[in-house]
Amino acid sequence: MVAQGFVVDGRFAPGEVLEVLARPRVRRVVWFTLWSAAAGTALTLLLGVPTAYALYRLRLPGRAVLRAALLVPFVLPTVVVGVAFRQLIGEAGPLGGLGLDGTPVAIIAALVFFNLAVVVRTVGSSWESLDPRPAEAAAALGAAPLRVFLTVTLPALRGAVVSAASVVFLFCATAFGVVLVLGGLRYATVETEIYLLTNNLLDLQAAAALSLLQLLVVTVLLVVAHRARSRRAAPIDRRTPAPARPGRGDLPALAATALALVLVALPLGTLLAGSLRVGEGWGLDNYRALGTTGSGRALVVPVTEALGNSLRTAVDATWMSLAMGLLVAVVVTRRSRSTVERRVRAGLDGLFMLPLGVSAVTLGFGFLITLDQPPVDLRDSPLLVPIAQALVALPLVVRTIVPVLAGIDDRQRQAAASLGASPLRILASIDLAALRQPLLAAGGFAFAVSLGEFGATSFLARAEHPTVPVVIFRLIGSPGLDNLGMALAASVVLAGATAVVMLLVERLRVPGLGGF
């Protein structure tokens, strides 16, 4: 992709990149990307921080279920999120009278819906482990609750908040399916503009220039998140404090939690209701139609066949991402013997985080222009889509495994080696023994992400072997209420599958998102 941007007709031409970035439309796209991502990040923090307090520091009934419910949107396919919000704010939707359809407000609301779990999990995990005694001491000395929060609690949480904010901004700036469905051509971000330039206009140089800009921003944000994690204040008491009973002063946090749950439930409930709507009544006709190719043969294959493709692809992507993620985690967590080695390991850790925020569309397009010549011509290989999805899921796998491996005392390995254990046996008896649950959780994350991956797959999936997100996008772009009903039903099936996977991951009680 770098070569596509800087090399023109066989000559090095960096000025061409600047010329692309100076285009009026590109400037508008970049500006909309920046301010919508900033607005989405600010609103997510305003809603997510008090929700994290309520779900991690207060004794609430069904806390585990509420946490899992807020985690589900994060792994939903972005195209499903877009479809759900269109149903909610469209003319026939419950909020259709607000006139939000086709506006930036709808996009930002969907971004908050999608990223709320990042703030709740990242900040909540840190808040849960904070020693309450400094705040209690400040309160005993007469400090008001707001002052206690601003002077004691917030400084201790600053690293977690900055880390969560940088990751949320990154996700907002690189959202694809949400913006594509809700914004269309009127409101484009860098992500959707790359898709338009490559898929519709075939302007590869402009797409590469935007990809380079995005890569630079992603790198900066990952560095900020890494430094924020490094500066995260350690709690005085390593024991997890017992949750407190809610009091009158906790009403704002409880209200924010209720609002967050409504924000999650309303689009999903509207999506479910729309899938059951048949004419003037209710029924399962839209679900039965999943075995067809839709009205007017909108699809090449039925949705049921696409679901089988999605499941097989997700299984392949999961074992690939687990294998790669385990190797990466082992390399970056081993003790470094010199400063240079430590910096190399840190650089590798950052390198494998890049797929977290680099455009999935860029990855898909990059695969097309890279793996297109013998002996590595995978354009017609069934492994191409799983490989791309494994790369997209890799950062989640690495961030789930690395904290566990880094927490293993290296003296255990040294003791085993002194007793004659081989490196392979040390890996199996010490490292893998500690990774049983984290590997299951990482596999669940990877499987859910692969099920819903849309950006790279939209480039790479062949028409006769589509995945469910691809067919959903085709159905909502096809005329007819029958096709829309099928799209809603397919979205519910896909959302239900990812929700079940994430509920199982939540039961493993592995931090996962907190690793970011």
From TrEMBL:
<feature type="transmembrane region" description="Helical">
    <location>
        <begin position="483"/>
        <end position="505"/>
    </location>
</feature>
<dbReference type="GO" id="GO:0055085">
    <property type="term" value="P:transmembrane transport"/>
</dbReference>
<keyword id="KW-0997">Cell inner membrane</keyword>
<feature type="transmembrane region" description="Helical">
    <location>
        <begin position="253"/>
        <end position="276"/>
    </location>
</feature>
<feature type="domain" description="ABC transmembrane type-1">
    <location>
        <begin position="307"/>
        <end position="505"/>
    </location>
</feature>
<feature type="transmembrane region" description="Helical">
    <location>
        <begin position="346"/>
        <end position="371"/>
    </location>
</feature>
<feature type="transmembrane region" description="Helical">
    <location>
        <begin position="105"/>
        <end position="124"/>
    </location>
</feature>
<keyword id="KW-0813">Transport</keyword>
<keyword id="KW-1003">Cell membrane</keyword>
<dbReference type="InterPro" id="IPR035906">
    <property type="entry name" value="MetI-like_sf"/>
</dbReference>
<feature type="transmembrane region" description="Helical">
    <location>
        <begin position="317"/>
        <end position="334"/>
    </location>
</feature>
<dbReference type="GO" id="GO:0005886">
    <property type="term" value="C:plasma membrane"/>
</dbReference>
<dbReference type="Pfam" id="PF00528">
    <property type="entry name" value="BPD_transp_1"/>
</dbReference>
<feature type="transmembrane region" description="Helical">
    <location>
        <begin position="383"/>
        <end position="406"/>
    </location>
</feature>
<protein>
    <submittedName>
        <fullName>Iron ABC transporter permease</fullName>
    </submittedName>
</protein>
<feature type="transmembrane region" description="Helical">
    <location>
        <begin position="29"/>
        <end position="56"/>
    </location>
</feature>
<feature type="transmembrane region" description="Helical">
    <location>
        <begin position="204"/>
        <end position="225"/>
    </location>
</feature>
<feature type="domain" description="ABC transmembrane type-1">
    <location>
        <begin position="30"/>
        <end position="225"/>
    </location>
</feature>
<feature type="transmembrane region" description="Helical">
    <location>
        <begin position="68"/>
        <end position="85"/>
    </location>
</feature>
<keyword id="KW-0812">Transmembrane</keyword>
<keyword id="KW-1133">Transmembrane helix</keyword>
<feature type="transmembrane region" description="Helical">
    <location>
        <begin position="160"/>
        <end position="184"/>
    </location>
</feature>
<dbReference type="InterPro" id="IPR000515">
    <property type="entry name" value="MetI-like"/>
</dbReference>
<comment type="similarity">
    <text>Belongs to the binding-protein-dependent transport system permease family.</text>
</comment>
<feature type="transmembrane region" description="Helical">
    <location>
        <begin position="439"/>
        <end position="463"/>
    </location>
</feature>
<keyword id="KW-0472">Membrane</keyword>
